[in-house]
Description:
Blueprint: E1 8-12, H1 19-30, E2 38-43, E3 48-53, H2 59-68, H3 70-74, E4 78-81, E5 87-90, H4 99-107, E6 116-122, E7 127-132
Antiparallel strand pairs: 1-3, 1-4, 2-3, 5-7, 6-7
InterPro entries: Nucleotide-bd_a/b_plait_sf (IPR012677), RRM_PARP14_2 (IPR057050)
Organism: Vidua macroura
Protein name: PAR14 polymerase
Amino acid sequence: DSAEASPSVVFENIERCSPNCLQMLLENISGLTVDADFTVELIPEINVAVVTFLKNIDTKEFVEKCSQHKRVREFKMTAWLLESTQSIKAENLPESISTDYLTVYFESARNGGGPVSDVQLFPEENSAIITFCDHKGN
């Protein structure tokens, strides 16, 4: 079951921990190295970081370790697995973008994509919703 677990973990309430501190903390807990083994994407607007493991690790076990870790508790952070989704929203798109271009772009393995089943353009928002055929496309 854990082989199917998401490679991404969400950390909430990160404001008390600087980005460098968070990276060191994650390295300490996981025994892995930032950039080589995992990436950290900060989303300061909602006080969250998303950690994506490039190495195949048991992310459920990692979340459990985090919830019991003294420093994580001191910072009052919480961690949980990021659920897989079949749809994503692309924003800040050029006005001339086409559904065909978006389909080909998001199906590109080089971009980490997969088979696309649907693209809905929202020109007034310069955005689109891309729906994948399966979870592996995310």
